[in-house]
Write a structure and sequence with these properties.
The chain is globular, with a radius of gyration of 13 Å. By secondary structure, it is of the alpha+beta class. It has helices at about 5-15, 20-25, 30-40, 55-65; strands at about 15-20, 45-50, 50-55. Strands 1-3-2 form a three-stranded antiparallel β-sheet. It has four helices and three strands. Helix 1 (about 5-15) crosses helix 2 (about 20-25) and helix 2 packs across helix 3 (about 30-40). It has a single domain (about 5-65), classed as Arc Repressor Mutant, subunit A. It comes from Tsuneonella deserti. InterPro entries: DNA-bd_dom_put_sf, HTH_17. It holds the Pfam family HTH_17.
């Protein structure tokens, strides 16, 4: 597991807030893509803590779930 993945996993276990880089990794997105989505208002909810944007794990999961398509909804 690379360092970013390890840090994201540790953050999730100890704190529900992920940095933008951790959130991007969790979602399988490039950091620059998540940053652009935040600027456009199309990404997951985020909060500014001091000078750092933070993403709550529940907001990330809800955003991802809202974009589910296809599959058996039965």
């Amino acid at each position: 597991m690379d360092d970013t993945a390890a840090r994201a996993q540790a953050a999730r276990a100890t704190c529900p807030f992920l940095t933008a880089k951790q959130a991007a990794f969790h979602l399988g997105l490039a950091y620059s893509t998540l940053k652009a989505m935040r600027a456009a208002g199309t990404g997951p909810l985020c909060r500014l803590h001091g000078r750092t944007w933070r993403y709550h794990i529940d907001d990330i999961e809800a955003w991802s779930k809202a974009r589910a398509r296809g599959g058996d909804r039965g």
